[in-house]
Amino acid sequence: MKVAVVGASGYTGLELLRILLRHPRTEIVAVTSEQRAGLPLGEAFPSLAGLSDLCFERAEPAALAGRADLCFTCLPHAASAPSVAELRKAGVAVVDLSADFRLADPATYERAYGPHGAPELFGAAVYGLPELHREALADCDFVASPGCYPTSVLLPLVPFLRRGLVEPRVLVDSKSGVSGAGRKLEAGFLFAEIDENVSAYKVGGVHRHVPEMEEQGSLAAGEDVVVTFVPHLLPTIRGIATTVFTRPRTSLPQAEARAVLEEAYAEEPFVRVLPEGATPSLAGVRGSNFCDVQAVMDERTGSLILLAALDNLVKGASGQAVQAMNLMRGFPETEALLEAPLVP
Fold this sequence. Notes:
The chain is α/β, with parallel strands linked by helices. It is 30% helix and 20% strand.
């Protein structure tokens, strides 16, 4: 299948290229970057030297439509929608990695991101979290790939919401590596500011990923789910470590809490329920498409603590997008994704 990557010079775009270059069922026919147009891939990014003869080009959706069967769009939030609209109009399948098509309510989107660039397509995409929407992804042509923070929250939480085991008000503490902010020149992301430092950001109000968590959580629970979310920036490049604090509606022993996760993910190739007593770590998932999860019942306080760790650039973005593509086209779901985490 011929694929193109629009916005291929960002971190998620480069991670997509790393995965797609080893995918036996895809051929990359175009990579776009406005800033690096004309540069060979290997010259712009030495890590790709010798792996492809492609050069970056400017994004022209109409031209891409005649060359690619499917396009991955890795453009910033709010900037992606117009390009996606042109590609869809031309009949090209799209996996969009921005937030532009993840939500169902236009007003909610506008509060978080501003005016939408393609309102006629709002609500048309399948939310691309395979563990939640595998059947809908099969044979579809338009996917909104989930955010990294929401993925780390929903995977441990949804099995409990679906069974009505926990109250619909949850607290979330998440910590992310700096690559989650994308490639940008801002003082807060300088090495001297990040190294040996941890800080919360965007505390209070509604973080722009919260509506995504609440919408998908509410769909799973069948009632409104409210999320209090506090993100932190870690002095690392990759990874998200998330802790979800919930309260069971009735008594939930430790063994039963773990059994909920084990039953939900027994057949899932990329969600690993860790052994009793083990906790997810960034080192355990770095560079992989795995999300490690754990459930811990705090008998003293009556709280159920859910833990998750994933690589924000793989299961939190590009790996998940390829997983969705595999399902869309009937390829083996694990194709090009069963890479062991990078250790050390």
